[in-house]
């Protein structure tokens, strides 16, 4: 049950009714021509990908069955205006459990203030529960901590470390 399991929305949008002229759905190949990478570019470096590279990567993700890339399309513009991804990671620990990761949450600057970030994160968090993940994690900029806290996320004692290549 969507409304019982998420933060309040005002106006009351939902995955099936994300707002006037908008649809929430899984990513599809044609989204390459609907500005999918333009939206990703608002998060980080996301360019120089050929259609062949995109299709190959997307096919790989679909074959694993563990990638849930969702988008919001503005149907009158025929453009992607928001996206987010849930990745399910498989573990031996916790009785061969699954762990969810939320990645690449982006709402286009032309579409801010429509609760779309909230909708995407709520949707993927709920999905991770349905898929029996024992936890769900994400990395975010300090300025976004308060946003994710609304969904029950909290800073952990663990330190996020990385090595970049
Ligand atoms: C943010 C994103 C993460 C993305 C990273 C890219 C969320 C919740 N977090 O941390 O998913 O991979 O930015 O930054 O959307 P990078 O280009 O420096 O790796």
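^ structure tokens above, recovered residues below v
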């Amino acid at each position: 049950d969507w409304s019982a399991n998420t933060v309040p929305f005002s106006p009351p949008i939902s995955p099936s009714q994300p707002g006037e002229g908008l649809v929430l759905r899984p990513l599809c190949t044609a989204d390459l021509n609907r500005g999918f990478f333009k939206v990703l570019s608002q998060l980080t470096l996301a360019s120089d990908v050929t259609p062949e590279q995109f299709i190959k990567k997307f096919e790989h993700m679909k074959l694993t069955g563990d990638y849930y890339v969702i988008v919001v399309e503005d149907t009158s513009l025929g453009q992607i205006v928001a996206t987010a991804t849930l990745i399910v990671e498989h573990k031996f620990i916790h009785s061969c459990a699954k762990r969810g990761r939320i990645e690449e949450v982006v709402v286009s600057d032309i579409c801010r203030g429509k609760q779309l970030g909230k909708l995407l994160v709520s949707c993927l968090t709920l999905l991770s529960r349905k898929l029996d993940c024992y936890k769900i994690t994400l990395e975010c900029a300090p300025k976004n901590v308060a946003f994710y806290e609304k969904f029950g996320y909290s800073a952990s004692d663990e330190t996020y470390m990385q090595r970049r290549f």
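The radius of gyration is 16 Å.
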